[in-house]
Amino acid sequence: MTPSVGETPSIAHNGPVVRQDFDSGLHQKYRYASYLPVWNPITELEALEPFDFVDKGAVADKAKPHLFSALKTRPNASITKITPRVGSEVKGLQLSQLTDEQKNELALLIAERGVVIFRDQDFKDIGPQKQKEFAQYFGPLHVHPVEAQVAGHPELYSIYQGPDNTHRAKRSSSRLTNTRFHSDVSYEHQPPAYTILTMLNSPPTGGDTAWVSTAAAYDRLSPPMQNFLSELRAEHSGARQAAQAQREGHPVLRAPVTSHHPVVRVHPATGEKSLFVNVSNTTRIIGLRDDESEALLGLLFRHLATALDCQARVRWEEGTVALWDNRATVHTPIPDFAVEEREDEHEKLIFRHAFRITTVGELPFGVDGLRTVW
């Protein structure tokens, strides 16, 4: 879902701003300036309370007649697979016009394909409130405990990388690559089900995102390894994110959460088994010695990062919306573009700007009823 072109480029909202992650002088004519990142000084976020989650994909008609009929009856509408195992791309269909039955079937499609890309989304009459209402159909909305927000809408996580960036641009790494496959805030006791990412501005080349099907990656493992992993839980922790935010001078809105999730997760809508570990948030395997845990996680992280036959890479453009399932994929941005301020006023400022809305899902369960604990 993309914002209305008529929205005022303002950062006014319901509380003072701790810090802006942009130079407002560079964006005076930018039509999405109201979506640029700020930190709202909320003193504390309430802990996420347990709740019963019903996946919309689990109640959908498996044949998806409502969704597919809309694609067949609309001119220039189409759906194509990005790769055989992961990713589909939809053209000619507006997310804002979907019925509840179509949304249910879309949820199932996302679960089956991992990520679904919608192109050329209409800007008219769509703003943050309607975007939140659309996302909330799939589950309660998550507020990120450390990352920047859209002013007045803490459920919208603003992602911005440009020449005036004071947050992401300062992060450095000693690794050979800055790609980092992860599942969003997987440390939550009930981690995200669906994520919706809307691209507002993208560089002319570069800045893609890649997804890996963790179900396909699980299928690649040998049966003995699958059986071994199915009995294990892994620790997922938000401590590293919180520590990084503190180093950067940003607020931590909730104390870091730690959960012990099944390493092999069963999807409630598809029944597929998938690996549920990621390099950003998974810290150790419960019950193994340190050396064993490091070796096993290293194997799984490498497997996910190098599984090109389980991967889809998506090129962004303004008006592209990606919807993905955090239980069936890991993803990474690919920061391979240069951000710079152009001296010629007729040339565009090069930056990448998007916002993310994430829905909270079920308490993870694994093989033979293995559940998350904390």
Reported for the largest beta sheet, the result is: 10 strands, mixed
Strand order of the largest sheet: 1-2-6-7-18-8-16-5-4-3
Instruction: Count the DSSP helices.
Output: 7
Ends apart, CA distance between termini: 35 Å
| CATH topology assignment | Double-stranded beta-helix
User: What structural class results from the helix and strand content?
Assistant: alpha+beta
Q: Outline the low-pLDDT stretches.
A: 2-14
Using the alpha-carbon principal axes, give the shape: globular
Task: Tell me how many strands there are.
Answer: 18
Summary?
The protein is built from 7 helices and 18 strands. The chain is an alpha+beta fold and 374 residues long. The strands form 4 sheets. A 10-stranded mixed beta sheet has the order 1-2-6-7-18-8-16-5-4-3, covered by helices on one side. The protein has a 3-stranded antiparallel beta sheet with strand order 15-9-17.
Structure write-up:
Pfam families: TauD. Its cofactor is Fe(2+). The chain is of the alpha+beta class. It has one domain: Clavaminate synthase-like (Double-stranded beta-helix), CATH 3.60.130.10. It is built from 7 helices and 18 strands. The protein is globular, with a radius of gyration of 20 Å.
Which tags fit this structure?
about 375 residues; alpha+beta; Double-stranded beta-helix; 18 strands; about 20% helix; globular; disordered N terminus; AtsK-like
